[in-house]
């Protein structure tokens, strides 16, 4: 029973990170109706920036805030410089842009930082919290950081005019443009927020998986599974899906398929959701009259 509790709590810690990345994917999907395949590589590059600033002598939390800010700018620039030119392009062309961006960022990170695996510091103490043997202090801190980010996002979307404008653009860009909302600026804001959220997830997962250009490949599969399970167009569903996938990954990986095959849990979830319920648990089913 204690071992099961340990796996569940560890899964919740990983699930918080998957929830952050799934939420970033949902934000991009709501704005463009496309999945950003480069989300993990953007988070990886942001984590390398944080590592460089920490090695340069900046305190961890100063580097953390600076990285989130720089990632926000990076995401907004990607939308304004690259994706804005493809607004009216066929869907396949935009998908190829996302894949090209993934490969470009991965190669640039390997060229600049090399493919040597590095350690990344955790801001949380190594000792268990209150002598708790079931979950590490970093895991508790990662869950807490994720929940703070989610609460800030909820407040932004629920109580600020910019958040309401961004929700309107995600729901209906043409009507938003007619009432005076600058759709292009809101899309850049959405990309910036998604990149900032990805940066937080990258800095929380790096102490666990270590830092290298391919660190996010497996993590992004879990995030895709989380977004699909909860509903690719539902932010709340993405958060639920992230925590659910984290727990399922740990429990099934430990007691059913083995830790070496844990990644198959994400693949089976993706296939199962797409076959049984493509809209996910909380997604909306759209019906169009023809």
UniProtKB/TrEMBL annotation:
UniProt-listed Pfam families: BPD_transp_2
Main location: membrane
Record's subcellular location: Cell membrane
Keyword check for Methyltransferase: no
Recorded superkingdom: Bacteria
InterPro entries per the UniProt record, alphabetical: ABC_transp_permease, BCAA_transport_permease
Lipid bilayer topology: Multi-pass membrane protein
Keywords: Amino-acid transport, Cell membrane, Membrane, Transmembrane, Transmembrane helix, Transport
Transmembrane stretches, start-end: 12-32, 58-78, 90-114, 134-157, 186-209, 215-232, 263-283
PANTHER family: ABC TRANSPORTER PERMEASE PROTEIN, BRANCHED-CHAIN AMINO ACID TRANSPORT SYSTEM PERMEASE PROTEIN LIVH
Family per similarity comment: Belongs to the binding-protein-dependent transport system permease family. LivHM subfamily.
Protein name according to UniProt: Branched-chain amino acid ABC transporter permease
């Amino acid at each position: 029973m204690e071992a099961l509790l340990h796996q569940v709590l560890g899964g919740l810690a990983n699930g918080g990170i998957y929830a952050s990345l799934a939420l970033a994917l949902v934000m991009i999907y709501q704005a463009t109706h496309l999945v950003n395949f480069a989300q993990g590589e953007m988070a990886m590059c942001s984590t390398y920036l944080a590592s460089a600033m920490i090695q340069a002598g900046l305190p961890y939390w100063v580097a953390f805030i600076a990285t989130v800010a720089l990632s926000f700018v990076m995401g907004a620039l990607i939308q304004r410089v690259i994706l804005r030119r493809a607004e009216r392009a066929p869907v396949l062309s935009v998908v190829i842009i996302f894949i090209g961006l993934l490969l470009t960022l991965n190669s640039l990170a390997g060229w600049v930082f090399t493919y040597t695996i590095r350690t990344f510091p955790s801001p949380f103490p190594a000792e268990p919290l209150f002598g708790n043997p079931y979950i590490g202090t970093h895991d508790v801190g990662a869950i807490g950081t994720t929940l703070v980010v989610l609460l800030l996002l909820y407040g932004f979307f629920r109580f600020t005019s910019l958040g309401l404008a961004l929700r309107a653009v995600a729901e209906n860009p043409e009507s938003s443009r007619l009432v005076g909302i600058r759709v292009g600026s809101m899309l850049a804001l959405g990309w910036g927020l998604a990149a900032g959220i990805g940066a937080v997830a990258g800095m929380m997962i790096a102490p666990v998986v270590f830092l290298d250009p391919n660190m996010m490949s497996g993590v992004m599969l879990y995030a895709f599974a989380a977004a699909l399970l909860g509903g690719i167009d539902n932010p709340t569903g993405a958060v639920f899906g992230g925590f659910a996938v984290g727990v399922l990954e740990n429990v099934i990986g430990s007691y059913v398929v083995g830790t070496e095959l844990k990644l198959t849990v994400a693949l089976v979830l993706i296939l199962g959701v797409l076959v049984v319920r493509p809209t996910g648990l909380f997604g909306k089913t759209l019906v169009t009259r023809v």
